[in-house]
Amino acid sequence: MTDRPTMTTTAGAPVPDNQNALTAGPLGGIMMQDYQLIEKLAHQNRERIPERVVHAKGWGAFGTLKITGDISEYTKAMCLQPGAETPMLARFSTVAGEQGAADHERDVRGFALKFYTGEGNWDLVGNNTPVFFIRDPYKFPDFIHTQKRHPKTNLRSATAMWDYWSLSPESLHQVTILMSDRGLPQTPMHMNGYGSHTYSFWNDAGERYWVKFHFKTQQDHKFFTNEEGEAVIGKTREGYQEALFYAIDNGAFPRWTVQVQIMPELDSEKTPYNPFDLTKVWPHADFPPIEIGVLELNRNPENYFAEIENAAFSPSNIVPGIGFSPDKVLQARLFSYADAHRYRLGTHYENIPVNQPRCPVHHYHRDGQMNTYGGIRTGNPEAYYEPNSFDGPAEQPLAKEPPLKVDGDMSRYDHRVGNDDYVQVRALFNLFDEGQKSRLFSNIAAAMGGVPSEIIERQLIHFARVHPDYETGVRAALKAAHGYGADTISTAAE
Ligand code: NDP
Q1: Could you say which of 298, 329, 355 is where a domain stops?
Q2: What is the structure's pLDDT at 1?
Q3: How confident is the model over 411-452, as pLDDT tens digits?
Q4: Which residue in 179, 161, 177, 145 sits closest to 455, CA to CA?
Q5: pTM higher than 0.70 for the full model?
Q6: Which domain covers residue 453, as residue numbers?
Q7: Domain count, the chain
Q8: 4 and 122 in one domain?
Q9: Which atom of ligand 1 is nearest the CA belonging to 212?
Q10: Average model confidence (pLDDT) for the chain?
Q11: Fewest CB within 10 A of the end CB: N or C in the chain?
C-alpha cells in the first residue's frame, strides 16, 4: 500500500501502467486501445501556445502597490487613494527576441503591470523607457518587422533596422535611449518602468487631468556594456530569470518608487510639443514628478506557464478614475492587446486564474470555448440578456467617465508635421557624461555593422541635427569599429 495519490487519466480513471505500451505480444504492435499513450502524446503536442509576436521572452513576479501620497484631488480610483494596498503582477520582457532568446540582449524592456483592484483589473503595459519609436500606430507592424527576422535569411537585419530608423526621425529619441547605457540593464530590478503613454485621471467632480506614470528603481540603475552582456550570455541565456527569481526567493524584494506627472486638461493646448505624442516626455521642470507610493515584488509564481506565459495585460483594462488620452498609439493598443490574447489564449482569457479579477465579475457574455465559469456570469439563470426584469446586473452610472473633449476635422494628419524630433533628444544627449557618450557612439557603431553607407549617412544626418558631437562621435566610432568612411563628408547642415 502507498499513500501517494493515484495517477489518473484526465477523465479521472486510475492509470494502471505508465511505463509499458500495450502490445500484442512482447514484440507486437501497439494497440489503438492504449488510449492513455495516445492521450499522453497528444497532450505533449499541445504543450505550446503561440508565443507573443513581441515581448515573447519574459520574467515575472507578484507583489504589492502601496499608496503613500495623496492624489485624491485628481482621481477617484480606489487603488490610488492614500493607504491603499493592491496585489499586483509584473512581467518584464525583451521586445524582439523569441521565447528562447538570451535575456542580456540590447533591447527595450517591457514593464507590464496588472493591479488586482477592488474595482477590476487595472493594467499598465509600459516599458523601461519613457518614449517609443513611433507616434502613429500604422507604423507598428512595419517597425516590428525590422526588429524580427529577415524573411529569406531568417536572420536579424541591421540594414532593415537602420533603414527604417533613418527614414523615421521620430524614432531617434528611443534609438538614443536604446543605444545608451539604459539599453542593456543588468537585471529587471535595475531599471525604471514608465507607463510611457499619456493617460488621464478623473475625479468625483468630473474634472480630468492628463497623467504620466513613472516607476523609479530603488536598486539603482545598473547596466552592462555590450562586451559584458556577451560574456554573461556566454555563461547563461537566462540571466534575468535567475536574477529576479532568486532575489525574491532570497527575500531581497525589489522595489520601485511610484511617481506621476499631472497636467490639467486644458494645459495640453499650451505645451510646445504634443503631450500625447509617444516619442516625447514631459520635462520634469514643467511637470514635476509627484511621489505617490511604492511597488514591491515579493512572490515568485508557482508555475511559470500558468502565471507568466498565460498573463494577459491590456491597456484597455482601466478602473473608474483612470482614463485614456488621444495618444494614437495608445488608442490602437486598446484593440491590439486584447486581440492578441484572444488569439493566444482564447476568448475567455480573463478567466484564466492569473488574469481573473479579484472582485465580483458580472457580465452577459455567453458560451464559447473554455467557458469555465458556469455558463453566464450574471448570478441568475433568468438574467441572460439585458435589460431584464429579473434583477440581473445593472449599469453603474458612477463609473461613467467625464466627457473627453475632442474636436477637429476628420483627416489623416501628417504625424511628422509640426513635431520637433530633435530637441528632447538633445536634452538627453546633454545629460550624458563623456563616458556615457562614448559608449553611446560605440554601441551605435557596433549595431551598424554591415549596413550600407547610404543608410548610415542618412542616420548620421539625424544625429547631427541633435548635436554636432553626436554625429562626429558616431562617425569616429564607425571608423574605429569598421574602418568606415574616411573620405565621407557630412551633409548635416540644417
Ligand atoms: P531632467 O533633467 O529634469 O530629467 C532628466 C531625466 O533624465 C531623469 O528622469 C532621468 O532619469 C533621465 N536620465 C538621466 N540619465 C539618463 C540616461 N543615461 N538615460 C536615460 N535617461 C536618463 O530633464 P527633462 O525632464 O527635461 O528630461 C530631459 C531628457 O531626459 C528628456 O528629453 C528625456 O530624453 C530624458 N528623460 C526624461 C524623462 C521625463 O519624464 N522628463 C524620463 C526619463 C528620461 P530617471 O527617470 O531615472 O529620473
Answers
A1: 355
A2: 56
A3: 999 999 989 999 999 999 999 999 999 999 999 999 999 999
A4: 161
A5: yes
A6: 432-482
A7: 3
A8: no
A9: 40
A10: 95
A11: N
Q: Is residue 261 domain-shared with residue 335, that is, in the same domain? A: yes
Q: Are residues 104 and 228 in the same domain?
A: yes
pLDDT band for 407, please (50, 70, 90 cuts).
Answer: confident
Among the options 121, 127, 310, 317, which is catalytic?
Answer: 127
Distance between Cα 202 and ligand 1 center (Å):
27
Backbone angle region of 346, left / alpha / beta, with phi > 0 → left and psi within -120 to 50 → alpha: left
All three cell numbers of 160 = 532593415
Cβ of 200 closer than 6 Å to ligand 1, yes or no, is: no
Based on the domain organization, do 64 and 34 belong to the same domain? Answer: no
The number of residues making up the chain comes to: 494
114 near 88, Cβ under 8 Å? yes
CATH code of the domain covering residue 4: 4.10.91.20
Q: Are 455 and 166 in contact (CB under 8 A)?
A: yes
Using an 8 Å Cβ cutoff, are 323 and 208 in contact?
yes
> Going by CA atoms, what residue is nearest to atom 38 of ligand 1?
281
CA dist list (Å): 377 to 117, 361, 364, 372, 380: 19, 7, 6, 10, 8
63 and 43 share one domain:
no
The reply to whether 127 belongs to the active site is yes
- Do 72 and 199 sit in the same domain of this protein? yes
Query: Cα separation of 324 and 322, whole Å?
Result: 7
Tell whether 448 and 348 lie within a shared domain: no
Q: Which three cell numbers stand for residue 143?
A: 517597425
